[in-house]
Amino acid sequence: MAKIRITLVKSPIGYSEDQKATVRRLGLRKMWSSVEQEDTPSIRGMVHKIRHLVRVEPIQEGEEKASV
Question: What is the CATH number of domain 3-59?
């Protein structure tokens, strides 16, 4: 299944509690942190809810983040 990289580019401070909770549920903790998630309808729905706070980019196969 395809994956997407989600990056928090704007602080959730000042936004509703449910949007802050959505940011946390996606695994985003700090500004400019990124997470890789499966591209599923539920994840897409969460991203759509906070689309003004995040940047989303598709991950090509073999491009996944190398562990350091």
Answer: 3.30.1390.20
pLDDT per residue as tens digits for the range 19-49? 999 999 999 999 999 999 999 999 999 999 9
Give the residue from 34, 62, 52, 56 showing the smallest Cα distance to 43.
Answer: 56
In whole angstroms, give the CA distance from residue 55 to residue 23. Answer: 12
Which residue type, as a one-letter code, is found at position 7? Answer: T
Tell me the C-alpha distance between 14 and 4, whole Å: 26
Place of tokens 């994840």: 43
Cα torsion through 55, 39, 63, 12, rounded to 10: 30
Helix (H, G, I), strand (E, B) or coil at 3: strand
Q: Is the dihedral of CA 14, 15, 19, 21 positive or negative?
A: positive
- The structure tokens listed for 59 are 């991950």
